[in-house]
Model the fold of this input.
Amino acid sequence: MFRSCIMYFVITALVLGASKPARAGDEEKKHVMKNMKSANETTATLQAKMKQRKISSFMEKEVVSKADFFYMKPGKYVLDPSSNDENQYIINNNEIWIINHKNKSVTVTNEKELNFSQYIMGFGGSLDGLDNTFDIKVSAREIQKKFGSYRMQMTPLKNSKLYNKLEKIVIYVRDDLWLPYGAELYENDGDITIWEFTDLKVNGKIKDEVFKQEMPKGYQLKKYENK
Done:
């Protein structure tokens, strides 16, 4: 669950930070990247309902979790779960707090300690260099109930650090907001994590205390263990 959530934050940062235009000749990809870049420049805050589904050959049934997602530029993210059985995540730039309300514990770590680079090579806010790591394909526009949708598939290249870790990442982008409303992570061991985002609110008011990293009274500080 922890690595899946971290991957979600990295994918979201990647998409919200999209900045590199597509190569000449791929008009569909160029069109999508250009509009994503414009959306990123004007998106200061974002709120959404998030549903995560984890599918694994080691589990009898898929594991479903739900949370409220908050983003504020630059580099602030929160996942506030609907159940105390799930961890709360507060990321403020490079510092990451993992709050377990069930066990009353807080784990504090950082981007360097987590080594995001083993997943997305440390982009965390830009598509610069992405073409050197992934084969990126954007499918033709499809019509959903209320908006058009583009499917962006990123497959690790054979010479990349991700080739033996990930099969592919799929991101679904809606063309009314030019933001993701879904993402899928396919790992080489057969595990699949699917995220769905609904009730997106762009540039709404979010109180600063939502992102405040403060030790709750009676909670224990734990050291992060890289498993």
